[in-house]
Design a protein that fits this description.
The complex is a heterodimer. Chain A is of the alpha/beta class. Chain A has twelve helices and twelve strands. The chains are: A alpha/beta, B alpha/beta. At the A-B interface, helix 3, helix 7, helix 8, helix 9 and helix 10 of A face helix 8, helix 9 and helix 10 of B. The complex binds adenosine-5'-triphosphate (ATP) (2 copies), iron/sulfur cluster (2 copies) and magnesium ion (2 copies).
Chain lengths: 335, 346
């Protein structure tokens, strides 16, 4: 009998804390975030706009922009620590082993170069291919992400593409070197449902065939439902809830997740006003004591104003909310 | 007698009900390689027909939405209407005046200040060197809506609050915000100009669903209070269903169908619209396979002959490949399809 080594996660983030030192004091944008992604797994990340999703992704690929910095925590890729690597070494990992799709397609594309030049350069940096082969590979990638007339389009400049096509070029760029981990920040936001379906099935296929791990940040719950295996819900720099996709979407436990799922508009539901969570997420300088969601939470009670809830197992998920503290659960069951 | 009565009441029909009328609008882009390459490779010019003969009307106080595959020309239509691109062909009539007429120049400038646009890309549309307060205050100054500095600041604070940010965020620069927060800044800026007509290109796709609800509720409330008119572009069909009075479906630079929202969602006529509605992602996770729109998206550089949808259409016949269908009205729906016209499809 062969002893199978314990399944090692491909990515492991431990107690990540991201700070911005400012004149008015230090802002904590991401606080005590821990998560892992297994080979071949898609972790969806959702949450309030400004909750720290993109910063978490940027920290993993080593592209936090100063003055932002990792103040605490560790990031491990295939068991090896990568958050403290020298710039040059991290640059090699990025692109070759971690592919990134950013929220903003313009940061990844150089407006002065044709798409073909950018793809060919990236391919040749990471794979042992001749220029001619690299160009053929570039066209193939563009076809895979659904760009029509790829042979012709490859020689155009980014501004000659529509918003959604530019986003697909960025996706092609991230897939160039067949990375082990893909950080995809809103990869399908600008895309229509059919292209979206195509990109999602492409990501899922990569996951299956190459055991690639994917961190998929998106606001689109349809995409989450379809693509993610597990989902992390972020609020105000922390993970509020994390668990299997069915649990989080259909059986939300944290009051914030509940509010979020309730805000999704549906075709055929005729409502004058869409459901929304009242109020706004606190600014980083004004995060309240206790649970950060307490000013907006319909279920708030005394403890929420003093104690910060930590993640604790609830059924198949983990939830950071005092409603699931042992005492509360006993009280709820008792009477 | 009846005739005269009709003419008098309908003397200014466009002015009364229609705010924007787009007629046979077209915009082509030259994407040819440089002349020398063309000579060496013996290729001709390449032209993208981004918008190719689009006609529709938007009623005052209504929301007209454009949907369709990425690259079908939605943003180009928006940019043509606000005057960022000149049309290759066709006309745009705003509030009864043809924007292309030679004499319309001063009027056009006046009109452009009555429109505001929220761009698809919040990164490109905010000046990185300006503080948020100044970005939002710009349309207030441009239209001289307020002059007193304290009043301008108070108004900017109010707008920031309306979009779910804080008045204190005004001192910051755009790069200090997340993607969704930046989009909210551009929404606040558009609202600051107190426009009558607002063009929203994917205004909420960078926002989480709860903030999206806040913004859409705010937009509806403003529409009710000030009778605003919206041109709305979104890939999220549930959002489109919720906000729109009328929905237009574009395919490869053309409008293939438009109708009142419920009619379009309940009784889609054009084969492409039917496919689009079938491709909506399944949130209930009942295991229903979503049906992707079959076939390749054709290139707008060499669009197919006849009906541009014919290579992917299950109802295509010889006529579809040869003859371009024009928009006709069937049961309150404007639709450009031979099969519908011939009664092969209802
Ligand atoms: N350079 C910076 N200086 C100060 N604060 C910053 C800076 N960059 C980001 N932040 C803050 O960090 C927080 C998290 O930002 P992040 O971009 O990770 O949000 P997000 O969850 O990706 O949101 P979205 O869904 O809107 O993209 C935000 O509140 C933002 O204002
Ligand atoms: N400035 C330009 N130069 C050349 N081609 C352009 C230009 N702007 C747009 N196009 C082309 O025109 C077509 C329509 O583009 P447009 O941006 O209007 O699409 P869209 O419907 O808004 O797509 P998306 O949903 O992806 O934003 C695309 O094929 C695009 O590549
Ligand atoms: S800890 Fe309290 S305030 Fe926070 S989500 Fe749970 S019930 Fe609401
Ligand atoms: S005109 Fe013909 S090809 Fe075009 S949508 Fe109708 S049936 Fe299909
Ligand atoms: Mg983000
Ligand atoms: Mg667009």
């Amino acid at each position: 009998m062969i002893v199978v080594p314990a399944n090692q996660p491909l990515l492991e983030v431990k107690n990540l804390r991201i700070e911005f030192p400012t004149r008015r004091g230090t802002l904590v944008a991401v606080n005590d975030v821990s998560l892992h992604i297994d080979p071949g797994e898609v972790l969806g990340v959702v949450g309030e706009s400004g909750a720290g999703k993109s910063l978490t992704g940027a920290a993993i690929i080593g592209l936090l922009e100063p003055p932002g910095r990792i103040a605490e925590g560790q990031i491990m890729l295939e068991g090896r620590r990568i958050d403290d690597l020298p710039y040059e070494e991290m640059r090699r990992i990025r692109g070759r082993r971690i592919g990134a799709i950013f929220q903003d397609p313009l940061t990844s594309l150089n407006p002065l170069y044709t798409v073909s030049r950018q793809l060919v350069e990236t391919i040749m940096t990471h794979l042992p291919l001749s220029e001619k082969e690299a160009r053929a590979r570039a066209i193939e990638l563009l076809q895979e992400v659904g760009i029509p007339s790829a042979e012709e389009r490859v020689d155009h400049y980014p501004h000659q593409f529509s918003g959604g096509m530019r986003q697909r070029v960025v996706i092609a760029l991230a897939l160039c070197a067949e990375p082990r981990l893909i950080i995809a920040d809103e990869p399908t936001t600008a895309l229509d449902v059919s292209i979206q379906a195509q990109i999602i099935s492409l990501l899922k296929r990569l996951c299956k065939e190459h055991q690639t791990a994917v961190m998929l940040v998106t606001h689109d719950m349809g995409v989450i439902a379809e693509a993610a295996d597990r989902v992390a819900v972020m609020y105000s720099g922390r993970i509020a809830e994390i668990g299997p996709v069915r649990e989080v979407v259909l059986n939300a436990k944290h009051p914030y997740t509940h509010g979020l799922m309730g805000s999704i508009p549906h075709i055929g539901h005729d409502v004058d006003e869409l459901t929304q969570i009242q109020g706004a997420m606190p600014r980083l300088t004004e995060i309240p004591a206790g649970c950060a969601f307490n000013p907006r939470c319909p279920k708030v009670f005394d403890r929420c104003y003093h104690d910060r809830p930590d993640l604790q197992p609830v059924e198949a998920s983990e939830v950071a909310c005092h409603l699931y503290d042992a005492e509360e659960r006993r009280a709820a069951a008792g009477d | 007698m009846t005739d005269t009565a009709v003419t008098t009441t309908d003397a200014r029909p466009a002015d009364a009900r229609t705010l924007v009328k787009v007629d046979d609008l077209a915009r082509y882009f030259d994407v040819s390689p440089p002349l020398l390459n063309r000579l060496i490779e013996r290729t001709g010019r390449a032209v993208v027909r981004a918008v190719d003969g689009v006609s529709f009307e938007i009623g005052r106080g209504e929301t007209f939405s454009l949907v369709g595959e990425s690259g079908c020309g939605k943003s180009t239509v928006a940019r043509l209407i606000v005057g960022l691109y000149r049309p290759t062909d066709g006309s745009i009539v705003f509030d009864g005046v043809d924007m292309g007429q030679p004499g319309a120049r001063s009027f056009r400038q006046g009109v452009q200040s009555r429109m505001q646009m929220i761009f698809q890309d919040p990164y490109a549309s905010l000046n990185p060197r300006w503080r948020v307060t100044n970005i939002i205050a710009e349309p207030i100054h441009a239209r001289r809506l307020l002059t007193d500095k304290a009043e301008v600041n108070r108004r900017v604070g109010e707008l920031l609050t309306q979009v779910g940010l804080s008045p204190k965020d005004g001192e910051k620069y755009p790069h200090e915000f997340s993607g969704g927060q930046r989009q909210r800044i551009s929404i606040a800026r558009a609202l600051a100009g107190e426009p009558e007509f607002l063009i929203c290109d994917e205004p909420t796709s960078a926002l989480d669903v709860s903030v999206q609800s806040q913004i859409l509720n705010l937009m509806k409330e403003l529409q009710r209070s000030f009778n605003l008119t919206y041109l709305f572009i979104s890939h999220d069909l549930a959002v489109v269903y919720h906000v729109s009075t009328t929905v237009g479906v574009m395919y490869l630079g053309r409008l293939v169908e438009w109708a009142e929202t419920k009619t379009l969602f309940n009784r889609p006529k054009h084969p492409y619209t039917r496919m689009l509605l079938d491709a909506i992602p399944d949130l209930e996770m009942t295991g229903r396979q979503r049906v992707p729109v079959a076939g390749e998206v054709p290139s707008p550089i060499n669009p197919p002959s006849g009906c541009p949808f014919h290579p992917r259409c299950p109802h295509a016949n010889a006529r579809c490949a040869a003859e371009r269908p024009v928009l006709r009205v069937f049961d309150d729906t404007h639709v450009a399809c031979h099969a519908v016209e011939e009664g092969r499809l209802s």
